[in-house]
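REVIEWER CHECKLIST
Item 1: Sequence provided? yes
Item 2: Single chain? yes
Item 3: Sequence as submitted:
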Amino acid sequence: MSETIGEMVLPGTYIDVRAEGLIGVGGISTGNVGVVGTAKRGPVGEVVLLGSYSEALDTFGAYDAWPSSNTENALSLTRALEQVFNGGASTVYAVRVANGAGYVASNTGKWNVKVGTTNTFVLAAKTAGTWANDVTVTLTPDSLVSPTQVTLTLKLGQQKEEYVGNTAEVLFNAVNAGSALVNATTLDNPTKGSLPDSVAKVAGTLTDGVPYTSADAKGGLDALANQPVNIVVVAGKDSGSSTNFGVGAALLQHLDATETDGRERIGVVGADSDTPASITVPGTTGRLILVAPGMVADDAAKTGANTNANLPAAYTAALVAGRLASTPVQVSLTNKEVPAVSVTKEYTRAELKALLGKNVFAIKRDLGLRALKGITTDNGAFKQISVRRIVDYAKAGVRVGSNPYIGRLNNARVRAALKATLDGFLSGMVLDEMLTGYTLDVTATRQQEINGIALVTMTLQPTFSIDFVKVIMNLE
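Item 4: Structure as written out by the authors:
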């Protein structure tokens, strides 16, 4: 839309402002992390936006103590989120998943609120999971002789909710209007005007849906497909391809599908072994980072003198994902510190060389814990993580900059304005040292004009990081 100023400032001179000349490229996200995993509470299959680890605990509950065996049964989402935020991430899209074969969505904690022997209504935990075992529900009358109202109290740790009413219906409505813990259901009409006098826990076994399979992980990844995510982690899953524990194939499928849809992202996955020769590499792609070895981390659920736990590389991957999220796209993770307590295996020089041969993102001990080389599993142009991120950033910027032009005139003037918008964005990338140079052209043939097509052609020259410094000494 153009703006015409009709007032004559100079004789015979009018001003016509074309809006296309004012279009720029807005902000582009580069550090949004998507995490999929199991938890004891929270909605299943829904994306939850988190800004801190405390929000993660409030939504999904604390993780359990790390087991000495059957580690695939350990709750993985909150534990991975702890490492993601420790790494420096600030915006996380989390999805709780559960094993459909061992998890029933309706199997929530339930309590019957009674009038005499009649269940006047039922309290059901808002989300399924073992967290409901820790909820206590009590009913306290205002008088033991002739009560006129009762107080319904719900407690979970330090969280406490109280609802006061003189009838079952009043309590029922109050709970549904304000409770963050339970829903009130199945109100009994004959007794809804009476005063409840007792509450009873309904017997049942609560489960968290662990272990979860690659198919369950795929469901969580599908929920993240349309979210503005740049980095993806499947909590607790390694690079193998086994039905129960490996997720490499499902993650690669997700990365390919989102790239096709124009929602490019990078997956970070832990190796299925700390031994270089035994590591499974899911695929040679510039969109996958394969991390080794496992890490030693403080376990908040453990008690005693030693609260450390030896976690598999899947959780090292979560830490690396957080570190990547807090790093500008043009900055390589090569030689960057990794904020872990320790690693489960310290590699020799020969082992590090073997890991580089497999394009594994290895953590080494060298003045602390550091990334050996910031690489993906690609063998070609996108081997450096920073190059992959720079190109993705450029593609996102071109989409953002081009979008306001869709529906405008397809003529030389508007195409020149589009080129100016994109040229300003790419020039900024050069100034920020993401690119050393580029070429750009916006064209359309007569037939493309008729079909409403403008063709953007660009060639990018990313800035490459220094992977090593070669030192030559002459001693005389």
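Item 5: Key structural point noted by reviewer: The chain has three domains: 2-26+387-462, 33-101+209-383, 110-201.
Item 6: Recommendation: ____
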